[in-house]
Amino acid sequence: MIDRLFVIARHAESTLNHERRVNGDPTVHVPLTELGALEARELGVQLANVPFGLCVHSRFPRTRETAELALAGRGIPLVEEPLLDDIDVGDLEGTSIEDYRTWKHGHARDVPFPGGESLDAAAARFADGWEAVLALDATVVFVVTHEIPLRYLLNGAGGSDELDGPVHELRNATPYLFDEAGMRRGIEGIRRVLAAR
User: Fold this and answer.
1) Helix/strand/coil for 8
2) What's the number of domains the chain is made of?
């Protein structure tokens, strides 16, 4: 029998997802698209019969908006967790995904984005964020975060030696389920990959 359940989703489609641009600054308001709002409501239908004790979201409005639409009318407390914020891309804020990927593939993971943080620093922060989620006093937890923190957790839990694979691109507003042991494997996997660098 599962003692704790964590349902984790990437936020629904945002305007910058649609425009294929990056955003790593939570003070920049990036709302959901009409499709994103629909995705969030459909996620709510999928999760309507899960007895959540609370919901965790990052500081980015698109994660909170997704959570509010998915949980509309249920009165589930929302908790903000900055450690699960998206990667701070610094000077690349608002640039195209292609420009972001070009910069990323041209530099080692421990090199910070200009004016931002490195991928490795973000991964360590995500591991701390997932630890914070585990420490919450709730048996069933819904988490709305970003693609990369969830990708790293999935790959870490699967025992991969790479945080970016084999799971890579995650769909918006799609739930992934973890028990407590799976969460711990994911966190340990992230830390193991970082320690091996």
Assistant:
1) strand
2) 1
Q: What is the pLDDT of residue 1?
A: 61
**How many other CB atoms are found less than 10 A from the CB of residue 47?**
17
Domain limits for position 181:
5-195
Identify the three-state secondary structure at position 90. Answer: helix
Cβ atoms 43, 12 nearer than 8 A: yes
To which H or E segment does residue 7 belong?
strand 5-10
Helix H segments across the chain? 15-19, 34-46, 61-70, 97-105, 119-134, 147-157, 180-195
* pLDDT on residue 197: 77
Using 50 as the pLDDT threshold, list the residues of the chain that sit under it: none
Peptide bond into 166 cis (omega under 30): yes
CA angle 94, 9, 69 (to 5 degrees): 85
Please report, for the domain that includes residue 153, its CATH number: 3.40.50.1240
How far apart CA 37 and CA 173 sit, in angstroms, is 10
In the sheet with 78-80, reading across from the earlier edge strand, the strands are: 78-80, 54-57, 140-145, 5-10, 175-179
